[in-house]
């Protein structure tokens, strides 16, 4: 039986009720926005590519910042889908494209807490790999001296960014600084590997408890993984960092798992809506670079995991199915279930499991209507 929750306890940093069942909306001003910039500051920690789910998430938060719904403190790059330098360049390029170069960008780390694994030798134990992301550089990996030294990894259609990343501190240091300057107000969006966030927890034992909370995109709970048989890619990339984060005292922990991916796909109807609301640099960017591929192939669809985290933060009424469970990550690298997000009923999990809120479904049509309304509004 599907469970629906109304919770004030987990998300005390939000204004109004947290993650509650969906209702219908007509126009942007009619949405039940649960946040204000005065009380809700956000940092996006991501493994950015071009016009993928990380970008959708970043654009939602940028528009929410313009609307006065959040204070978007910055974007931090972590290794994952691509190496960190590539992701940094992609973040900067896309912030330039949407005319939001005021949002600072900080460079994090490529290397997981326990170091890189060798996928070929691990494959017999872990069941093979469907997606390797930044791991595909293994064997010939040389960390670039800076994000403008990408060589063959550069996306020629975008080129190098004109703006620069911040160099006064790294991603983890930036998170720590902002959390202590704004205690109880900063929500971390961990939509890539959790390495930067785990480093912040290790560098400052008070970091987690001084945030407002953390929202992850990661884990495969009741479905197979997309990295190996059990593991979802973000958490597979550095499962030990996930367990470090879970074991820290974030005021709330919300997980948007791989389970939701097939339920909230991007299809042509999303871009048709954007075409009707093409009033901003964001919608124009999608029209110029993405829309034609869906017109040419009307049955095309793609996943958009990360965007869901920002959508439910702003508008929790979009959620239709959520549940609290105890959760832990299998960190036994010789196990077939390595990086698996194991869950138990609340109170029944083993030592070092953490009770988290898991979002299993949202109203797909209302979500994309909300997102395209938001993208198409000039603030």
Could you characterize what this model shows?
- By secondary structure, the chain is an alpha/beta fold.
- It has one domain: Ribonucleoside hydrolase-like (Inosine-uridine Nucleoside N-ribohydrolase, Chain A), CATH 3.90.245.10.
- Helix content is 31%, strand content 15%.
- It is built from twelve helices and nine strands.
- The chain has helices at 53-67, 84-97, 119-126, 171-181, 195-203, 233-237, 239-246, 268-276, 281-289, 291-296, 305-314, 364-375; strands at residues 41-46, 71-77, 105-107, 186-190, 213-217, 253-256, 319-329, 341-345, 354-362.
- A nine-stranded mixed β-sheet has the order 3-2-1-4-5-6-9-7-8, sandwiched between helices.
- Strand 4, helix 5 (195-203) and strand 5 (213-217) form a beta-alpha-beta unit.
- Helix 1 packs parallel to helix 11 (305-314) and helix 4 crosses helix 5.
- The longest helix is centred in the N-terminal third of the chain and has 15 residues, at 53-67.
- The radius of gyration is 19 Å and the shape is globular.
- The chain starts with 40 loop residues before the first strand and ends with a helix.
- The model is unreliable at 1-26 (pLDDT under 50).
């Amino acid at each position: 039986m599907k469970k629906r929750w109304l919770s004030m306890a987990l998300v005390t940093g939000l204004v109004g009720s947290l993650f509650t069942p969906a209702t219908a909306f007509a126009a942007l001003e009619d949405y039940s926005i649960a946040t204000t910039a005065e009380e809700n500051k956000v940092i996006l920690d991501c493994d950015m590519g071009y016009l993928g789910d990380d970008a959708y998430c970043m654009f939602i938060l940028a528009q929410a910042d313009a609307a006065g719904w959040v204070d978007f403190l910055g974007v931090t790059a972590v290794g994952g889908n691509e190496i960190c330098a590539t992701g940094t360049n992609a973040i900067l390029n896309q912030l330039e494209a949407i005319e939001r170069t005021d949002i600072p960008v900080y460079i994090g780390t490529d290397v997981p807490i326990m170091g890189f694994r060798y996928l070929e030798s691990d494959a017999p134990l872990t069941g093979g790999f469907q997606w390797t992301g930044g791991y595909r550089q293994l064997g010939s990996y040389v960390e670039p001296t800076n994000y403008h030294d990408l060589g063959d990894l550069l996306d020629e259609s975008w080129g190098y960014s004109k703006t620069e990343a911040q160099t006064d501190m790294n991603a983890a240091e930036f998170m720590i600084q902002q959390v202590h300057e704004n205690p109880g107000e900063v929500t971390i969006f961990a939509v890539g590997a959790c390495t930067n966030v785990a480093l912040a927890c290790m560098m400052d034992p008070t970091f987690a408890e001084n945030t407002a909370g953390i929202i992850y995109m990661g884990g495969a709970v009741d479905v197979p993984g997309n990295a190996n048989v059990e593991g979802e890619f973000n958490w597979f990339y550095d499962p030990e960092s996930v367990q470090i984060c879970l074991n820290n005292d974030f005021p709330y922990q919300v997980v948007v798992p791989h389970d939701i991916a097939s339920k909230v796909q991007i299809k042509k109807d999303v871009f048709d809506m954007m075409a009707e609301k093409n009033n901003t640099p964001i919608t124009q960017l999608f029209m110029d670079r993405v829309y034609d591929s869906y017109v040419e192939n009307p049955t095309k669809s793609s996943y958009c995991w990360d965007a869901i985290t920002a959508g439910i933060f702003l508008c929790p009424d979009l959620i239709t199915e959520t549940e609290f469970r105890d959760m832990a990550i299998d960190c036994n690298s010789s196990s077939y279930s390595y990086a698996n997000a194991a869950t138990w009923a609340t109170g029944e999990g083993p030592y070092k499991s953490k009770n988290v809120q898991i979002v299993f479904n949202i109203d797909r049509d209302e979500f994309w209507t909300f997102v395209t309304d938001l993208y198409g509004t000039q603030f």
